[in-house]
Each structure stands twice: as structure tokens, then as C-alpha cells.
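Help wanted!
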Amino acid sequence: MLLRRHLAGGATLKESDLRSLAAPYNRGHHRFAVFVACATFVLIIAGALVTSNDAGLSIPDWPTSFGSFSVPPLHGGIKFEWSHRAIAGSIVLLTISIAAWTWFADRRRWMKWLGLAALGTVIIQAILGGLTVRLFQPPWVSSAHAAVGQTFFCIAVTIAIFTGRRWVEEVPQIEVDHRRPSLITLTLLSIFVLYVQLILGAMFRHHGMGWWPHVANAVVVAFVLTWTAIRALSQFSKIDAVRRPAIILVSLLIAQLCLGFAAFLTRVAWGRDAIQPELPMVISTVAHVAVGALLLATAVILAIQVWRQVPVSFEERVPGGTRKPVAA
Amino acid sequence: MNKRTSVVMFGLLCLLGLWLLVGCSKKEETTEAPASAPSSMAQPAPAATPIDPATVASISGSVKLDGAAPKTAKIDMSQDAACKGTNTAETIVADGGNLANVFVYVKDGLGDRTFDVPKNAVTIDQQGCKYHPHVLGVMTGQNIEIKNDDQTTHNIHPTPQANREWNESQPPAAAPLEKSFAREEVMLPVKCNQHPWMRMYINVVKSPFYAVTGPDGKYEIKGLPPGDYTIAFVQEKLGEQTQKVTVAAKDSKTVDQTFKAQ
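Answered by r_m:
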């Protein structure tokens, strides 16, 4: 933060100075973090498959499966639920590993805490998973399970970003943001509306509320994310670290709106009286959840990059009545 | 918040979660005591109100579907090779306009009468990855025996509004499960989360005056004391319809009902 303010204020630092302040790039650590993030994405898909196939309670006990830790016969809904549990168990082990690796290998104190935050989140997520089975899927517990799962995914993605070569070694391309609302405000607003959308979607999927709040908020999400992406691309397209996630954000938004429409048709319009989960509904809803997770993670990446690369200017009243813009 | 406080808070959070899980892991008693019984040291259930067998009446009739029955949905059982049942859904079964699986019961008119709970259990059989019967009537507190005749594991998961929810698995050749429901509840859904097409409805009532229409749409309720009654006809998809009827001693009334196709 101090370095950022220093740079935004117009001071110059040599690249060697920056490298001495930052942690050295650790290829193994970064690749493992990327692996954890990818595995978490697979876990989100596995979880979505459980819900879409109505298989959440196909194994009535937790943490055991039919009273044991061995693999049960994988037929019917059991294959979805047990696979989800097996991948989730692996993710817990991976998270313990990445948290320990970060604690011992990363010099940055905040990174150590981020690793611990990932571990804490995955433990909370496991407890919510257990509660959703034990309490027969009350909508608020199942929705919290969905929301915390995507929060963990975002943390895993940020660990992968913060351990990457670009983050560790590249000098930020600083450009001061003079417009209001600032781009950082817009990116934070994007994360907020996406989070609300995630909770509304989860509540609908878990029979806690109707579909219309989720659909109504989709309009708000589309507006805020488009505004954010246009602002990022029109004003800061020279900054690669901002341009890339902004382009991905708007691309994912278009894909997500199409998938949302498909999910609405297959589940609400055509699938209302379906006797069992049908393949088009399963594919469209699982893809909708997966792209939603990517969209949220992209919004988080964009916010982080904007925070790093685009400091906000503010006007300071100087004695004597003159105003001079100063970077924050 | 310093480092130590953060660690303590995190630890407490984990302990709280574990405590919640342990609390939820206590095996639930799924055979419920009747709502009228104040405790497990229960006083005996109140004696049944006597009915003079010389005066009892009966109600019978048939239930029809007016209009074309919707096309029967096909079930895809391919996700479990052990499932070899008939693959048609039973949401609306109306052969020749005769509506099957309608639960018919005396909804109102019995006043404060009490009735003996039958000692014999009713049976739910899981066969061909379907529940038999699809619609069941049972008295509050009456035992339900649940069997699995399939070569695959099922789970039986009632999702009631007024009774306690439970979810138990039953492997092939396992001993039958014995369950009962304490409170009245009509069209209580039961499903198997392993085979999502498996669905049935249990109707729990306080009196023995109920019936389920057969494939010919017919039903019969016997042994009714003379009186004014409201008869309810409930179908899982088409909802509930009622009729008022008065029966005199030894009467044999015909009460037909027609549901409109949606």
C-alpha cells in the first residue's frame, strides 16, 4: 500500500528496489495454487451435478457413506453425491497443503493469513455440507453451502494470482482514476451484485424462494458488469492486467445470460412437471453454476488488478483556496 | 484483533460447527409418538368412541377425469441397471376416464370421535424401482412396513409438513423398516433420492374412513355412523375437491366425483 501510494504520488523506484520488497517467485508454489483453484472449479461442477440430479440426500449419513468410509455401489444419485464428497475431501487435503506451503514459503505476512483464510473457509464449507445432509437440505444451509463454496473458489483463485510471476515480478502500470464513480467502486459493486445473484440463484435451486428475484437481479448484474467492463476497457485498456479480466468478464456475462435463459426454459418453463431430472436441464443448470463461479472469480481478479494498477485521485482542499489533484 | 485472538476465534468457530454436527448426528426416533400422547410414559390412548354396528352406513362411488388425460411420461431408469420396472409415471392414471390413485376420506363431520388404531401394519413395497402402492392411506400412529424387493439400495425419504422428516437407506434383502406418523397429513410426499423418479404419497388421517381409488376409479368407505359429512377427494396433481353428504342409518350412498383435466 505504501509503495502504491509512493508510486501514485509520482515518486520513482528502481525495479531492483521493487524486487527486494516483493517475495521471490516460487514456480512450484504457484503451480500448486493453480492446481488447487482448478480442482476447486471441478468441485463446484460436482456440487452442481448433485443439486441438478436431486441427489443431495442419496447418501443419508455424513461424514460416513452408508455407515462406512469405503466406496459404496455407485448407482443412481449415489455416484453424484459420493463423487462430490470424494473430491471435497481431496480439496480439504490440498487446502491444508497450500496453507502450510504458503505459511512456510511465502514471505508476505498477508499471504500467510490468506492461506489460513482458505483453510478456515474450506472447513466451514465442509461443516455446511454435513449440515445440509443432516438437516435434510434446509434452503438457507444449502444456499450458504453454495455461496461459501464459491467464496472458497475465489480465495483459491486469488492465491494463484498472488503467487504468479506477473504479480510478483512485474511493475504495476499505474494510471490514476479521476472519474466518478471510480473503477474500483464499480468492480466492488460488481462483486456485490454477483454475490447477491449467487445467493438468490442458490435459494431458488434449493426451493427457498421463487425464480423471479434471481431473474430480476440478472438485469441489475448485466447493467453493473457492462458498465464496469466498458469503463475498464474505455479508460484503462492500455493496462494488460485490467484489460484482460474486463474482456473475460463481459464475455462470461454474455455466456451466463444465455445459459441462464436456457436454464430457465429447461427447468421452469419446460421442466416444471418433469418426473425426473432431464439431461438438458442438468447440462444447462450445471453450466450456469460453473460459468457463474468463473464470473465471480473474474470480477474479484478485476477488482484486485484495479486496486493495484488504478489508484483513485481525490481533491484536497489546500489552504488558500486552490485545489490540486492528489493520488490516493 | 491480534493473532492469538484470531486463532482462538477460528478454533471456537470450528468447535461450534462440530458441536452442531454432533447434535445433528444423534439418531432420530422416526417412529413418532402420537401427538395426543403427552410423554413416552404415555397414558393409554383414549378409548374409541363406540359405533353401533347396526346403524353404520357406507359411501361408494367412482372418480372420473373429464377431458383428455395427459400423455403418460416415460421414466428413464438407465442410471441403475438393477431397475427393471414399468417405466411409466403415475402422476395421473386415468384409463378410460377412470381416475386411479385418488385419496378419498371423511374430512369433516366426525366431531370429537376417536378410533382404535389398527394393529396390522400397511405395507409399502419397493419393486422395480417404484413404490407400491403409489398412494397409501394410513391412520395416525398405525405401523407402516417398508420392504425392498429390488436388487439395489433405495432410500426412503418422506418430506412432510406436519410430521418429522427422516431419510433412511435400505439395501437389497434388508429387514423391513417399521415407521409411523403421529399427525394428520394428506398427500405427504415420499421420495428416493437415489432414483429421483421414485415418488409416492402417504395420507395420514385420524379416522378409518378413507379409501384410495383403484384402476377402475372406484372406492368404498364402510362403517360410517349416520351423520353429515364432508368427503374430500385428493389427487396429487389435480388437487382437492369436496362434497357434502348426509347418511342415515344403514344408508348406502353413491358419491361420484369428477376432476377436470388441466
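OP: Thanks! One thing I noticed: DSSP finds eleven helices and two strands in chain A.
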